[in-house]
Amino acid sequence: MGDNGASSPPFHRRWVFTGSHHFNDLPNVRWSSYLVSLRTLELPPFTLAETRLLLSQPLEHARGPEAQAAVAVFGSGFWGADGMDRIHAKAGGWPHLVQLLASTVVDLCNTLGLDRATPAVLDAALPKAVVSGDSVLAELLLYRSDEHPAAWPYLSAFRTQDTQPPPPDAALRLTLKRHLLVQEAPGGHWTLRVPLMQRWLHERT
Q1: Nearest C-alpha neighbor of 175 from the set 72, 3, 21, 33
Q2: Which of 99, 132, 165 is the C-terminal boundary of a domain?
Q3: 184 belongs to a structural domain
Q4: How many domains does the chain have?
Q5: CATH at 141
Q6: Are residues 178 and 20 in contact, defined by beta-carbon separation less than 8 angstroms?
Q7: 97 plus 158 within the same structural domain
Q8: Range of the domain at 56
Q9: Which domain-ending residue is among 103, 132, 161?
Q10: Do the Cβ atoms of 185 and 193 come closer than 8 Å?
Q11: Which long-range contacts (CB under 8 A, 24 or more apart) does 185-193 make?
Q12: pTM value?
C-alpha cells in the first residue's frame, strides 16, 4: 500500500488459534518472536459436574421466552436416572461429543414423541451419533492427518483390540497424548479415552 503521508494510529490485533497443534509445529519462522504475549490455553474435557450442568441447565442465562421454555423442559429429569452420566462416559467428556450425543437423544425423543429419555433411547442414540458425527470423529482421530504419518495406523488398530502397547516413537506418543486420545490401561498398555471413538472405528472404518 502507498503511504499518503499521514501517520497511522497505533492498533493492536488479537489472533486466536484453536486446535491441538503447537506453535512449534508452524514452519519457516519462530512465530513466538513475532507475537506479543503469546500464550497457550489448555481447554480440558468436561468434568462430570460440567457435563451435568450443561445438560440440566442449558441456556440458563438466556432471557428469551423460547430459551426459558427450553430450560424448563431439559432439566435433570429429562435425561433419566443416569442418562447424563452415560453421555459423559461415552463421550469421554469431549464438549463437542457430549453435545452430539445429547442432541441425538433429543432428536430421538422428538421423533418418538417421548418427554423423557429412556435407557433404550440412549442406546439407540449411540449408532446414530456415530453416523451424524462421522466427519468430526474422523478429524479427532487424525484420519488422513499429516501431523504424524503413524498416528492413523496406530489409532486404527483399536478397531480390533481394546488395548495395545504405547508406540515406540516418542513424537507419536506426544502427539496422541496432546490430542487427549489415549490413556494408560492396566499393565502399561494404552486404550482410547473415548468409547464413542472406538465405536466409530468399529462401525465407520
Answers
A1: 21
A2: 132
A3: yes
A4: 2
A5: 1.10.10
A6: yes
A7: no
A8: 48-132
A9: 132
A10: no
A11: 187/163, 189/163, 189/164, 189/165, 190/163, 190/164, 190/165, 190/166, 191/158, 191/162, 191/163, 192/155, 192/158, 193/92
A12: 0.80
What would the grid cell of residue 200 be?
A: 466409530
* Ordered per-residue pLDDT tens for the chain, 205 residues: 444 545 555 556 776 666 655 666 666 666 666 666 667 777 789 999 999 999 988 776 666 776 666 666 677 789 998 999 999 999 999 999 999 999 999 999 999 999 999 999 999 999 999 999 999 999 999 888 778 999 999 999 999 999 999 999 999 999 999 899 999 999 999 999 999 999 999 999 9
CA distance 101 to 132: 10
Cell of 26: 508452524
And the C-alpha cell for 181? 486420545
Residues whose CB is less than 8 angstroms from the CB of residue 85 and which lie 6 or more positions away in sequence, other chains included? 48, 52
